[in-house]
Amino acid sequence: MKKVLILFLLCFQLSALAQDTLFLKGQCKNYGDSVVLRWNVDQAEGLFHLAKSSFVIERKAPFNDGFQFYAKQAMQRPERWNLSSFRFDQGAVAAASLQKILALEEISSLNPAEHLNIQNELQFLWATLSFGADVNIEAANQANLRFCDKQLKQGLLYQYRAYAVGEGFISDTLYFFPGEVAIADSAANPEALEKEGEVALKWAQSAGATAYYLEKKEQSSKDFKPINGRLISANANASFLHYSDTVENYIPYAYRVLFIDAFGDLSAPSTSVIAMGRDKTPPPAIEGLRARELANGALIIQWQACEKAHGERGIALGIRAEDGVAYTPITKQLLDPGTDSFYWENPNQIQDIYLLAQVVDTAGNPAMSGLYYQYKDLVPPAKPQGLKAQVDSFGVVKLEWEMGTEEDLDGYLVFFSNDSNVEFSGIYNQPLPGNYFYDTLSLNMLNEEVYYRIQCVDKRFNRSLTSEIIKVKRPDYNAPVPPVFFDFSVQDSGITLEWKLSSSGDVEKQWLQRIGAKDTVWVELGVLDTSFTDKQVKPASWYFYRLYAEDDAQNRSPGSSGLYVQSANKHFKTEVKVVSAVYDSLSNTVELHWDYTDTAIRAIEVYRGPSRVSLSPMPGKIAGDQRVFIDRKVERNKIYFYAVKIWFVDGTETKRSIPVGVITGN
């Protein structure tokens, strides 16, 4: 479908159907005694219409109401053109181009690929015809692209309009308004670059120029002659045009530029420029450049002598320090080309030297050879001093040290290690020029300390002794590993917990957290504690325990696995201490006295028996605030043992006190 559409469009263009419009463009020029009108079609296909039509020119005098018919002309067939009167060869090219264009109209049926080729060819032929009409007046006349009005009345400025008359198309109308008499412009002045056997010319393009040609003459000649056989077309996409003229060296020529406009008029010539070809080929560079150091610091610079077969005029030597920007001559004048050595004292004692040897020919062309030389130096720099370090909370370490005073100091190497007893690694493996360095520590490492040292390097790569090692403590944001419970036991006196210590090496303390029904208690423990007995518990109560480790940076570990423990159901308090047991023979009674500080006593019970192991509770309970008991039911001449036990308000109790014996009398 697409190919059919392409074929239709191309046939439409090439067949000049009746609905076509002929679009035109034009310009005019006033010569004073004549006015020239120039026009062209806006598209290449319009030439088919122009070839079969007449071109009508109408003229209007000042103060007249309208345009009046003035002239009518048509295109001449190319084979009838008078080619002998054409300037350059562009007229013949224009005639041949028009003949091919008219032949294309006869093609009635082609495949789509051929139509595409014809379309491209038509554009090229139109450009060639237009160029020929611009630079050649006769070609423009014969192609019906030009009209010259020589019937002018002095002092009157006429106006013109023009259009084509023919069948199958509608013509555009051109209007021309000639202004003041045109003055010929000059071409832009050329620039010349002198090369080996060549002069390269460059000039700016001029407004209105269609083509250019160049002229030259020898200085001994009076007449300029064209040097380009073909005209150089103007290029709308370039600001400058170029032309190279092949010449013999050292013969000067004068060059100038002229241009031709669309009316075939030649401009005034540019100002001439004088140039010549010059010898630009340098002689062979010297070979074998080398240097030998003497004991006094001077150098013997040596090379292979020149053969003097290429116009060599002499040899120049120069030096540049390593940190310099330009070479300084060390020879006051050119050395003879046959010279092969030079003694240089090195008065400034430069240690790193770039040598330059130039062979110069009679045309001034240099050939260069270079050599880099370093004086021997086996003395290392002094050991770096004053190394210190600062580290911030983000782990950025700033190292500083005292700057060395050696003139050939190249810089410092920085080394790092996680252990002062193992090999250090280089952080920055080329010499640092200053006396400070920044490093960033990883905050996810377990080792807390890192170590640095530096080394000085001179420009001969001699290394100093390494500095003293400096220790830097890494910012610690890593919490230690928590301890781990592994056993517990419950006694009447409390709850005993046992655990394994944290595996982290920087633990400074441990914490035990106890959560009860109504409160939370924190207990600080020693760093090596592995057990703890909690005596501050209530009977038959549940408690939750968890352990934490804390390091030297106050980072606290996560809590250990929790431990739920219930305290003992009964809790025995301290036994009662019986102060005395005294028998009173007069009343035949035994009086007991005891002491106890706890006042939350619910009841007191007294035990009695014939021996320490055979005690029975006596009937009745004693009030909690009593500290004396009188046994009125004793027999004489017997042994009695007594003990006391206390019950408390909170449900706890004491064990029986140690039995106390007493003997009753007669």
Describe this structure in words.
It is built from five helices and 47 strands. It is mainly beta and 666 residues long. It has six domains: 2-176, Immunoglobulins (Immunoglobulin-like), CATH 2.60.40.10; 191-275, Sandwich (Immunoglobulin-like), CATH 2.60.40.10; 290-374, Sandwich (Immunoglobulin-like); 388-473, Sandwich (Immunoglobulin-like); 484-566, Sandwich (Immunoglobulin-like); 572-663, Immunoglobulins (Immunoglobulin-like, Sandwich). Strands 12, 13, 14, 16 and 17 form a five-stranded antiparallel β-sheet that branches. It has a four-stranded antiparallel β-sheet with strand order 5-4-7-9. A four-stranded antiparallel β-sheet has the order 21-20-23-24, with no helix packed on it. The longest helix has 24 residues, at 112-135. The chain starts with a helix and ends with a strand. Residues 1-19 have low confidence and may be disordered.
Properties at a glance:
mainly beta, 6 domains, Immunoglobulin-like, four-stranded antiparallel β-sheet, five-stranded antiparallel β-sheet, 666 residues, single chain
In short:
With 666 residues, the protein is mostly beta strands. It contains five helices and 47 strands.
Average pLDDT: 87
Annotated CATH topology of the largest domain: Immunoglobulin-like
Supply the CATH architecture of the largest domain. Answer: Sandwich
What does the radius of gyration come to?
A: 60 Å
Structural class: mainly beta
In CATH terms, the superfamily of the largest domain is Immunoglobulins
Residue windows where pLDDT falls under 50 for at least 5 positions: 1-19
Number of strand segments: 47
The number of distinct structural domains comes to 6
Largest sheet: 5 strands, antiparallel
Q: How many alpha or pi helices?
A: 5
Beta-strand residue percentage: 35-45%
The CATH class of the largest domain is Mainly Beta
Shape by Cα distribution:
elongated
